[in-house]
# Entry
Amino acid sequence: MTETSTVDEQPGIPARSQTDVVIAGIKGMITDGRLGPGSRLPIERDLATELGVSRGSLREGVRALAILGVLETRQGDGTYVTSLDPERLLSPLGILAELHTPAHAGHLLAVRRVLEAESAALAASALTDEDLAALDAILDEVDGILASDPDMDLERFIDTDTAFHRRIAQASGNPALAGMIDSLVGRTHRARLWRAITERGTVRETQGEHRAILAELKAHDPERARIRMAVHILGVEEFATAHAGDEASDPAP
Amino acid sequence: MTETSTVDEQPGIPARSQTDVVIAGIKGMITDGRLGPGSRLPIERDLATELGVSRGSLREGVRALAILGVLETRQGDGTYVTSLDPERLLSPLGILAELHTPAHAGHLLAVRRVLEAESAALAASALTDEDLAALDAILDEVDGILASDPDMDLERFIDTDTAFHRRIAQASGNPALAGMIDSLVGRTHRARLWRAITERGTVRETQGEHRAILAELKAHDPERARIRMAVHILGVEEFATAHAGDEASDPAP
DNA sequence: GGTGCAAGAATGGTCAGATGACTGAGACGT
DNA sequence: ACGTCTCAGTCATCTGACCATTCTTGCACC
# Structure
């Protein structure tokens, strides 16, 4: 049985399954420097032999690491280590945004509030005129959407909302922070669409709050930007906390 | 070819591979309410048939969702949806802590600083006498470790350090926040051990800072606790940012 | 009737082999 | 030099068989 020999070869790694052997083996290759960002792995057949597992088990382990953003497979070419950037490694965080239970919506929004307030504060000092013009353009587009009420394109509104938050997060200059916010904001489309549909008034309110945030960003005032962003998200957080028992009650700003 | 029929059955889901079909299919079962926390999935053979894929492809998809904390498989029993708690869904975040490149250590620490400062502030209002006694016991244990210098058990020191931060995060009352901190703190053992070994002085300094944090927590002063925690992590963040090019230079407080 | 144990059924875990789909490199033609 | 085609290499998928683990059920004993 190859499991015994594999455990012997890697003392301290309690391998519970062959797939765990694969995951631990590849992670070890990365941490010990044999593989780095962008490295190509040995072909499946050879790597399976090296790790003492079947090709099927190897594939299961590779698939797991792929969804974690560590590896990417290219059919016909090979399997590669990704850039291991925060954006890559944080993308699985979106599953939390998609699948958490309604009882936890408020908790998640509280985390977002903390992160996004920080990113707004950092961005206030870093935003260029070009960035600010781009943010202005996003909000101008929302004005256009609002002008077509009652036939507002709510899908488009959600997209602009996401773009607004994303742009600010990127301007923070911290890729880990931006990646985290991106994952938390970008994958809640369905719930936010639901809220926009059921509570039309929040669309205008959100736009007003976005304008207030942008004004402080333009003033390059970190603390005011932080406060504006925090209160923007706090409204929705309180809504979510109050409606934690409702079906699909996971709103977002 | 089953891929075509599967795409037809789930319009709007651009399935790129059979495993993607599986992942999207199971996620859909969760979001549309057919499966909930703790639910048992159909057996592999039946589920593969239902989704129109082979058992091997089904397994790859299940494995991917398992490592994301969405599913857990029990041999001989079946495959289950997890509790979908933040703790579960955030555990994959630890991969970021393990595999990010040194260039991003400072970024990650900055995120931790924001999150942990917030958790300290929340905890300051929520900590019970029992919690505070437990935190005191942790730091007393560290005093014992320090007393055995130069034969300090650094592994033990790292464990107590982790326990201290974890206990505070849990006391915040926000499981998403606690889960995130847990994932970011709990999986950086190797790098923190390296720092403790190479810079013995930081062990005493850390203990001093932990004592200061605990004093503010005992005083139930959210803002002072926030500041103490922030400056505690800021020191290491600045160290990491200054040594971003060094090998294994990912320290942590 | 209650308890414990063994056997069998159910189900996930693994492997091997075959075939299909895709990619990149090299050869060839213009 | 550039574009196109071919082929070898490699991942993607499927099938079938066997192994390992867990749970359920039946039976024996008290």
Notes: Residues 1-15 of chain B have pLDDT under 50 and may be disordered.
